[in-house]
């Protein structure tokens, strides 16, 4: 069982004065079955509503009926969502889903990365990244790799960054999601083949020594990677684990019913604003 991972980031270069909490969650098979269970949907809603932006992976919701149920659940805030098309090479497909709080952010633009000819079998990713720019012009690149292709797909994320930078003229980019980046999927001998790892302009904010699993293995499958420019705004050593089972007082069986990935790292983006040509940090929202 592998948890979804987020990380605490301090953004000090944007013209906002409130904290921004961002998460990434591999919810495992989110679709009509989970959405039709009122208790499960309520738990998922409570998790989602902790965040200003949350990436949900493994969304298996062809007609978006489950997504709509989630969005219709009561909230003290106004949430919107942006979702990718179903992605995959076979009949098995997943979507990337971003849910975001309107009071704090908005979507500026987005695209699905064109990774080649899918019918020809020459495309790069099983689930190509759905790239989204949010207000203040920072970019999130999600990726849920196929375990057997993790080395190849994580390496190719470098090309996605280059393309995004070229198209949007920005390097304020964060890559996040279930990279399957460890243990048998990416071994010690594989890292030299991964440009996203060897290129010193990237910063892996979850170390190889981390354990993002709930099993006896120590595997850092879920990752957050920042570009150099994005690092200017990230507070060091602010990654935290959020165990929603404990936080919400759930039994282990209910937590696993929500997802086999029941541990988060808390991603607390604290936004700042310039004052007297100095960037004054204004965030005090650490959990």
TrEMBL record:
GO terms for molecular function: deoxyribonuclease I activity; DNA binding. Residues 1-19 form the signal peptide. The active site is at residues 94, 144. Keywords: Disulfide bond, Endonuclease, Hydrolase, Nuclease, Signal. GO terms for cellular component: nucleus. PROSITE patterns: DNASE_I_1, DNASE_I_2. Residues 24-230 form the Endonuclease/exonuclease/phosphatase domain. Belongs to the DNase I family. This is Deoxyribonuclease. It comes from Electrophorus electricus. The lineage of its organism: Eukaryota, Metazoa, Chordata, Craniata, Vertebrata.
């Amino acid at each position: 069982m592998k948890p979804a991972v987020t990380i605490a980031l301090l953004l000090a270069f944007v013209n906002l004065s409130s904290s921004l909490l961002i998460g990434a969650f591999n919810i495992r098979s989110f679709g009509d079955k989970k959405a039709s269970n009122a208790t499960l949907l309520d738990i998922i809603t409570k998790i989602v509503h902790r965040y200003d932006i949350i990436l949900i992976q493994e969304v298996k919701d062809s007609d978006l009926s489950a997504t709509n149920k989630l969005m219709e659940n009561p909230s003290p805030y106004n949430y919107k969502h942006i979702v990718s098309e179903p992605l995959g090479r076979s009949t098995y497909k997943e979507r990337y889903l971003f849910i975001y709080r309107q009071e704090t952010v908005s979507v500026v633009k987005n695209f699905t990365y064109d990774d080649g000819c899918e019918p020809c079998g020459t495309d790069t990713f099983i689930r190509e990244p759905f790239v989204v720019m949010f207000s203040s012009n920072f970019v999130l690149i999600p990726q849920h790799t196929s375990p057997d292709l993790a080395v190849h797909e994580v390496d190719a994320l470098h090309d996605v960054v280059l393309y995004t930078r070229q198209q949007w003229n920005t390097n304020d980019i964060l890559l996040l999601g279930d990279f399957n980046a460890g243990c048998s999927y990416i071994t010690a001998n594989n890292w030299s083949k991964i440009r996203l790892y060897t290129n010193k302009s990237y910063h892996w904010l979850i170390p190889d020594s981390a354990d993002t699993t709930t099993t006896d293995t120590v595997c850092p499958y879920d990752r957050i990677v920042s570009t150099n420019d994005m690092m200017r705004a990230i507070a060091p050593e602010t990654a935290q684990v959020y165990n929603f089972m404990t936080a919400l007082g759930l039994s282990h069986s209910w937590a696993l019913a929500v997802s086999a990935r029941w541990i988060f790292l808390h991603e607390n983006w604290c936004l700042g604003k310039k004052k007297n040509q100095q960037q004054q940090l204004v965030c005090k929202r650490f959990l």
